[in-house]
Design brief:
Structural class: alpha/beta
Helix content: 40-55%
Number of helices: 15
Strand content: 5-15%
Strand order of the largest sheet: 1-2-4-3-5-6-7-8
Radius of gyration: 22 Å
Shape: globular
Amino acid sequence: MGWTAAVKWWVLACLHTCLEWVLAVVFGTVVLTRLVFAFMRGAVRDPRVRDAPPPCLEHPDLGRHKFLKLQQNVKLHYVEAGNPEAQLVVMLHGAPDFWFTWRKQITTLSLDFCVVALDLRGCGDSDAPSRSSQYATPIVARDVASLITVLGRDKAHLVCAGQGGQVGWYLSYHYPQLVSKMVLIHAPHPYVIRQYINTRWANYLKSWYLYFVRLPYVPELAAHVSDNGMIDQMFSPLVAAKAITEDEIEAYKFTFSRREDWRGPLNHLRQMDLSKVVKEEPLPDVITKPTLLLMGEADPALPMDLAYRSAEYVERITVRQVKGRGHLAHVSQAPQVNEAIGEFLREMPWRPLSPLEEKSSSSLVRRVMGASLAAVTSTVNKTTGALEMTTRGLPIGFKTMAQGSIKLAESKLGLEYDY
């Protein structure tokens, strides 16, 4: 990068940082205004006192509670289930969340694997460093790498959701010797997320909470009021679908019963890289670890198209759609997710998938073809969407014909959702 390009990159970075803070203040003002009006109406309730955990948190089928102290003087809590001699599966939750999010996977995967559901630093019963900079992705990834090593393992499978997926991507890049396979639930490539958010103003609005949490103190206050109302909002779709019980919601409210319990999870979100992608920035390397990416088919914030774009940076990736928004698919669509994860982790890592894959070099051809078809699919969807806004009758037939052609090409090439 030349001197002129470096100055340009620095100026753009400063401008984008200013934009992030402007958005944070705007969204923070909106949230505070709503809180004030709710308080005036008497809708703000004091949090209930919860002295004892609900029974579901201590169910013996979910495994054994253990602690591990790292050299960084941070104590991590995790739950271990299954045969200690079996292959290790490390499960990384999103934010705000804790190990309990994997309750529907632990009992299934522990039949064949040694499952470790970790509380990331600052979450659940793990230690919570005070500075937000101590929650940066490289530091959290180092925690997970140390966990795998201290458990006496050479490598492990990773199962990650949400923000935990960002940690999984980092581990696959910087600790590839410790990763066997990676499962990502609604966690596209970080580079792709940055591209998407900074493409249109509408995407900033969809990701408003990522900017709102940049503010100090206010997000913790907003999450804690009305008896941890943030939890009620977060799980309202699951309550409507009867995918979560009152006892399980109480488990979350017990874990996040104090305002300081929110600081760690929100610090994970505060450290997420939202910077604008610039032309001078090098493209990410291609990950060689077999990867399964499960994405919700109807998520307004992270659409399915981001999964196909992520395929460009993985040598072997399998993309699967799940119903709904996807960010809590391991809870709302547990049977489908468990089946997909189990099948992926048990299969041979380099199985032949199509005639294109007769030689090792053909995996690159397959990846390029898969990404190309993904781009065509995205273009067709956007084009037909535009046509539907201007004409009637024609778009339906055009869209059906185009999508049929894509499916035929995928079938003939043996691609489908496996790139």
